[in-house]
């Protein structure tokens, strides 16, 4: 059998960023961010605090406008592709003191299907139960989220994403404030067979064990420092560019001016 017969499954780009720029107030947060991610890839988005990881996710889901360039989700603009994406923001953004159960949080993934307010019907119950079983928390379905550990709460948010049945899952700082065991639990969930066709992006500060955990890595510090297989792109030069000072690289890039030369 030759290589052409073996490679019958053709890859398809599902997230394409072409020179994307984002301005927030007086800050140029992302500039000339360019990459292409194929469907089904598990991608780590790494970089320093303030490097633009959360900003990129917000741009992908259409919560932040681009000042320049473009982002396409399966060929569509972010505003047109919202049903394709499930976004799990940093857990600190959700008030865990609010009296809400695991069942109710996971049911939020059904909002776009107009089933959240009828979450007692059989179809909704089955979807919620299936998602919680996938993350190993079916026995916590009636638990108040106040009583969950950090790792359990992250798994609940992933279960919510699974009920949405989106093609793309974005997890912002999923490993933040959880121990190594919880991190492995999250990765085991992501690597399950039923997620093989889904594209998963996880924003993280940790560059350890990326080769074992992810197909590809996107190195980000205001711009795309590198994108590809961890073993190939995480070079000393890229790490220095990603975490070091490189303001000189943006001397022609300011608010409302993205590298253009003025005559």
Q: In a nutshell, what does this entry contain?
A:
By secondary structure, this protein is an alpha/beta fold.
Can you describe this structure?
By secondary structure, this protein is α/β, with parallel strands linked by helices. The chain has a domain at 3-95 and 167-228 and 242-257: Rossmann fold, CATH 3.40.50. Helices cover 28% and strands 25% of the residues. It is built from nine helices and eleven strands. The chain has helices spanning 3-6, 53-60, 102-107, 122-134, 150-164, 180-190, 210-213, 230-233, 236-243, and strands spanning 13-24, 27-38, 42-46, 68-73, 85-88, 168-172, 199-204, 216-221, 223-228, 253-254, 257-258. The strands form three sheets. It has a six-stranded mixed beta sheet with strand order 5-6-7-3-8-9, with helices on both faces. It has a three-stranded antiparallel beta sheet with strand order 2-1-4, covered by helices on one side. A hairpin with a 1-residue loop joins strand 8 and strand 9. Helix 4 (122-134) crosses helix 5 (150-164).
Summarize this structure as a short list of keywords or feature phrases.
disordered N terminus, Rossmann fold, alpha/beta, three-stranded antiparallel sheet
């Amino acid at each position: 059998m030759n290589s052409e017969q073996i490679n019958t499954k053709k890859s398809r780009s599902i997230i394409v960023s072409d020179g994307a720029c984002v301005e927030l107030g007086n800050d140029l947060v992302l500039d000339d961010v360019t990459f292409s991610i194929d469907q089904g890839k598990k991608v780590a988005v790494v970089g320093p605090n303030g490097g633009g990881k959360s900003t990129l996710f917000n741009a992908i889901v259409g919560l932040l406008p681009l000042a320049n360039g473009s982002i396409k989700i399966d060929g569509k603009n972010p505003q047109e592709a919202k049903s394709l994406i499930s976004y799990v923001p940093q857990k600190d953004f959700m008030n865990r003191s609010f009296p809400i159960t695991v069942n109710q949080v996971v049911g939020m993934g059904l909002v776009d299907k107009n089933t959240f307010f009828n979450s007692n019907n059989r179809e909704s119950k089955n979807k919620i139960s299936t998602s919680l079983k996938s993350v190993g928390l079916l026995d916590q379905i009636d638990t108040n989220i106040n009583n969950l550990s950090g790792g359990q709460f992250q798994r609940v948010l992933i279960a919510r994403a699974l009920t949405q049945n989106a093609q793309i899952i974005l997890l912002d700082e999923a490993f933040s404030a959880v121990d190594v065991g919880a991190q492995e639990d999250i990765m085991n969930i992501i690597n399950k067979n039923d997620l093989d066709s889904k594209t998963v992006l996880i924003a993280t500060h940790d560059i350890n064990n990326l080769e074992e955990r992810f197909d590809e890595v996107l190195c980000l510090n205001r711009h795309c420092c590198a994108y590809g297989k961890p073993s190939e792109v995480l070079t000393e030069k890229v790490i220095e560019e990603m975490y070091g000072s490189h303001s000189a690289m943006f001397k022609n890039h300011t608010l409302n001016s993205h590298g253009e030369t003025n005559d």
